[in-house]
Amino acid sequence: MTISRRTLLTTATAATALPLVRARAQTPSLKIGVLNDQSGPYMNTGGATSVACTKQAVEEFANAQGMKVEVISADHQNKPDLAVSITRQWFDRDGVDMLLDVPTSSVALALQSVAREKNKVYINSGAASSTLTGEQCSPNFIHWTYDTWMLAKSTGGAMVKAGGDSWYFLTADYAFGKQLQADTSALIKASGGKVLGAAQYPFPGTSDFSSFLVQAQSSGAKVLGLANAGADTVNSIKQANEFGVNRSMKVAALLMFITDVHVLGLDTAKGLNLTESFYWDLNDRTRAFTKRVLPKTPTNYPNMDHAGCYSATLHYLKVAHDMGVAEAKKSGVETVARMKKMPVEDDCFGKTQIREDGRNLTPSFLFEVKQPSESKGPWDYFKLVASTPGDEAYRPLADGHCSIVKA
Amino acid sequence: MIMIFGIPGPLLFGQLLLGLINGAFYAMLSLGLAVIFGMLNIINFAHGALFMMGSFAAWMLLNYLGIGYFPALILSPVIIGIFGIVMEKTVISRLYKLDHLYGLLLTFGLSLVIEGLFRNYYGSSGLPYQIPSVLQGATNLGFMFLPIYRGWVVLAALVVCFATWFAIEKTSLGATLRAATENAPLVQAFGVDVPRLITLTYGGGVALAAFAGVLAAPIYSVNPNMGDNFINTVFAVVVIGGMGSILGSILTGFGLGVVEGLTKVFYPEASATVVFLVMVIVLLTLPHGLFGKRA
Amino acid sequence: MFGFSRPQWIGFLAMVALIVVCPYVLYPVFLMRVLCAALFACSFNLMIGYVGLLSFGQAAFFGMGSYVTAWTMKFWHVDAVIAIALGGATGAVLGVCLGYLAIRRSGIYFAMITLALAQMVYFFCLEAPFTGGEDGIQQVPRGHLLGFINLNDDMAIYWVVAAVFISGFLLIHRIIHSPFGQVLKAIRENEPRATSLGYRTDDYKLIAFTLSCMLAGVAGGTKAIVFGIATLTDVHYSTSGEVVLTTLLGGLGTVFGPVMGAVVVSAMENYLAQFGSWVTVTQGAIFVVCVLAFRRGIVGEFGAWRKLAL
């Protein structure tokens, strides 16, 4: 059969448009993929600001050292299967070397095996579940910024010490909420307190907590523990105020970021206790960092998730530079091992150490939200109540049952 | 303290009261839906998005124009009602001759577009809206603290529902509307401008949703997903009540709110799903719902 | 034997050719996602296109198939064939149970009952321990097929998925072009008439429903093995909505419509994932445009233009 010239031409043109072979770069370059929720309930927690902070780190280090680094991002919409799909593509086709951020514990867990299978680097700043460095730990993985155990110890432990020895939980009925409730309950009991009950509400989709709050009030507990996050936390707090719960009980927002306080407003959030491992106004170094990154994220001051992205990227780039970029690209396990060996230091968290199970030992700070009259400027929201150094803030290594830790 | 089924009496009554408050929202929203379905035969899946827009309109009025809550109660329904009319005239009216299915799909698509756009510009965390100062505070009823604002919500809902029911069932305008849906050409032959009547009715249904949105703004944070949280339950309410029945939606709305409240006491995890259980049972036994009169 | 007309045979061969060639050019995992979505859409099309019943709850069968296959692969280490078959069986059994309740009504009430029943299945999946709640069932091994084909290789599993899809596709068309299929068509055109001719229409509808659900279960199970994960998204009503969108966009009641719809929707989601909420907006806009102007869907419009029945 003769092929017409037209067919030949169109086929040839089409063929050149197809990505048959990935173009080889002259100098090896690194690619970082920031995967988080950019449109849903955790949009302000991570979102575009995480990307901005990652790019900030790239600018500060890589450009100064002449390294070629590219940052891409995507929205996982809190869906584990979409995240798996995007990540596979990133690793297989797009040459991504490091996966970063990934809030939402269910998504975070799902990506453990993908990163391990493809032998890439996976650093999580946004998710909470402490099993990421426990039963689900992986040699390709570092949990950078915080986790449920640390939140429980800091907020839970401190509340009990302050006299809150009876608790009632309002819990998002999924893995994260249950984990947070479990970790906190264990600590409460260990400190001699009691858990009087818990209301587990359907997640997602619940916006009215009034009936659960009424139950909490009638339980007579001294503390209302909110084992939820994002929009749920914001709503629970608003409604707790409405129903006068905050008059008879202390409200402990077990996971809350400064970005949530901003949404709530000081009038509603005043007096609340929460734990973060970073606050922009904590010391001179954090203030300097914030000043540098603020032009790139005009609507949000950085919270601990964002700071974690910056810090993790900076450390990764330092290690990659040390190893040589080509080596760093080859094996995620090797790179992560080097990252654990090299001590971490930056403007956000100061000096920290990454433990064998992948846990970065950041300090934890217990904050109280200021009264409106105490706030002197934009985003001046917190006063420091207590702080725990990194090596005490997290679950002891042995209790995690992490398989890569040599007993 | 009296104990009923092992639950302290005060707690039970408190939950029933709260259920009634939720029921008020369900009633208002399903009323709008029922009006639109009953009069127009359109299954308006966009109702949740319009409710959300009503809330946002109130927020925007406050934050961009400094207009407070009480004026917003009137302005927001008007604005969103006009938007609804525009939607009806341009898009929805083309579907009247087609199967129900297409109306459902179209309005579902519209809701995705509206919610997606709002999510892009305003994020998902929710925007704060303060309870107006005259309605702040709570009264101690003995068995619970009832926030005054919530009491106001129930009152406003009852008034609005009653007014709508009255307008449709008891006034001549309502009678004309009902006649127009049964036999439009005949009513048109009498000189009544039927298409305009239908358009205004759609606008009215939308306005009801927006009104509910303004009422909801101080309680739930104003966020693009607030419609989603309600829409499934509200649909169930309408179906259970009978798809064209105004009275059915009102009674079922309040009733289901109470049922949901009770479920929250005994088995909280199921509270989001009990509505569907009821819907299945009702549909299997009474095909047209509790008060339904048309297929 | 499948009742394909000549244009349809050409279309079928073109489709098979594309299935064979594409993995060498495009990313195989993406293509497998398309194939699973296409199978799911085809099963949905069986119900809406040929029986005339719009089910808003197909995610229940897709998702349960996904969970069962994932669970049996991960904890019982069965052969992939058995796991997928179990997924399909789950879909079928659930289909019979839920269908029995839903078939009694028709039209909008049928749609609402299926939605409500699917919501209850969702709730069950949320609470039942074996599904892993919001984490889902993760790290599902790819395992082996028939004992010797190692599915960890992307290309190997691709051929398996392609085979599953083509078999499902042909099965549906075998069903349609059979005496059973003719009765279904009669029921869709005029149910009272069919009843008066002595056919027990409810039984026919139920069988069609069950078959549709079985294939949805197979699609779900296959997807679970490819991606190694089964989550609540699979049973969520947005998945039900998505399959409606896919079939509508491609062309309700056409042979290749669902496949085309799956290609477009998957590509769109893939491409737009970086733009956040624009995916939702675009999906909504497509719905609106399709319903208003494009009711026959891509394949339907193309067929009308070329005067072919595709």
What is the fold's blueprint, element by element?
The complex is a heterotrimer of chains A (407), B (295) and C (310).
Chain A: H1 5-17, E1 30-36, H2 47-65, E2 69-75, H3 80-92, E3 98-101, H4 105-118, E4 121-124, E5 141-143, H5 148-161, E6 166-172, H6 175-190, E7 194-201, H7 210-219, E8 223-227, H8 230-242, H9 245-248, E9 250-253, H10 258-264, H11 266-269, E10 273-276, H12 284-293, H13 304-323, H14 325-330, H15 332-341, E11 344-346, E12 350-352, E13 364-369, E14 382-388, H16 390-393
Parallel strand pairs in A: 1-2, 1-3, 3-4, 4-5, 6-7, 6-8, 8-9
Antiparallel strand pairs in A: 10-13, 11-12, 13-14
Helix pairs in contact in A: 2-13, 3-4, 5-6, 8-10, 13-15
Chain B: E1 3-4, E2 7-8, H1 9-40, H2 47-65, H3 69-90, H4 100-122, E3 138-140, E4 145-147, H5 148-170, H6 172-182, H7 184-189, H8 194-216, H9 226-241, H10 246-266, H11 274-285
Antiparallel strand pairs in B: 1-2, 3-4
Helix pairs in contact in B: 1-5, 1-8, 1-9, 1-10, 2-3, 2-4, 2-8, 2-9, 3-8, 5-6, 9-10, 9-11
Chain C: H1 6-21, H2 28-51, H3 59-76, H4 80-102, H5 107-127, E1 144-145, E2 149-150, H6 154-176, H7 179-189, H8 191-196, H9 201-227, H10 237-250, H11 257-272, H12 278-293, H13 297-306
Antiparallel strand pairs in C: 1-2
Helix pairs in contact in C: 2-6, 2-9, 2-10, 2-11, 3-4, 3-5, 3-9, 4-5, 4-9, 6-9, 7-9, 10-11, 10-13
